[in-house]
Amino acid sequence: MPHDYLSETLLLDYQNLAIKALIAQRGWAALSDGERIGAAYDFVRNEVLFGYNSDDALPASRVLADGYGQCNTKGTLLMALLRALGIPCRFRGFTIDKGLQRGVVPELVYPLAPRNIIHSWVEVQHRGEWLELEGFILDQGVLTALQAAFPDRNSLCAYGAGTDCLQAPNVAWSGKSTYIQKTGINRDFGVFDSPDAFYANYRQLTGFRGLVYRLIIRHWMNRRVAQMRAGRVPTIPGGDENLLPAKSTLLKKKAA
To answer: What are the pLDDT digits (tens) for 78-91?
Structure first.
């Protein structure tokens, strides 16, 4: 079956009036391909704040209306914008170790969080190659707060960040791949034409635990993110060990 990296889907609903209005108001359609990618990417990175929606499998229009998102939901919005602008893109699914979310997930409920958390990035076709875009997840306010809280650290895998270059992460669009959670990845599910195809097989936090997350925990997490953005980064117990990638991830890297 041929791949289709430009089509609209239920989640990539780029014919939605709000998405079409955004593109028209910003004048993105008049830009070159590289500039279109950069404009959509910068919008999703900084104008859609880092935060936690009610579900991973939300339509792009809903994410836009929320005004915030995490890796999966912000990725859906970015893909919809890119396809609306005629830029081929695809979805790549992973899991990350839950340690990457420590500090955002309150300590009281952290032991109850799944060990492996669904994660994704967007792959965009540009100048004949596929680039990996992940650096849009944290908005600049959150990233700046983490840099200020850990001025002497380069490696950090907590608070929603997973990077070995915290003070100068590769997050700005420059025609190259970008990353901000890569060091937390512990499983690769491969490439999918759309987020719809991925979520048809991989979902998380269903049933009662999902209900508690949607109604209570995610709002708690969003308040903590807002506090981080204001410069109040909570302390994670356990010292330096809990600020680094899980040992299993480190061992895989050394063996590679």
So the answer is: 999 999 999 999 99
Model-level pTM?
A: 0.94
Sign of CA dihedral 178, 184, 190, 193: negative
Q: If DSSP states are collapsed to H, E and C, what string results for 167-220?
A: CCCCCCCCCCCECCCHHHEEEEEEEECCHHHHHCCCCCCCHHHHHHHHHHHHHH
Q: Which pLDDT does position 107 carry in this prediction? A: 93
Question: What are 153-202's pLDDT values in tens digits?
Answer: 999 999 999 999 999 999 999 999 999 999 999 999 999 999 999 999 99
Annotate 192-204 with b (16+ C-beta within 10 A) or e (fewer): bbbbbbbbeebeb
Cα 39 to chain centroid distance, Å, stands at 17
Q: Which domains does the chain have, with CATH numbers?
A: 17-242 (3.10.620)
> Looking at the predicted structure, is the pLDDT value of residue 250 above 80?
no
**Close Cβ partners of 151 (under 8 Å, ≥ 6 residues apart):** 167
Question: What is the three-class DSSP state of 29?
Answer: helix
Residues 199 and 56 sit within 8 Å (Cβ to Cβ): yes
C-alpha angle 17-20-26 in degrees, rounded to nearest 5: 135
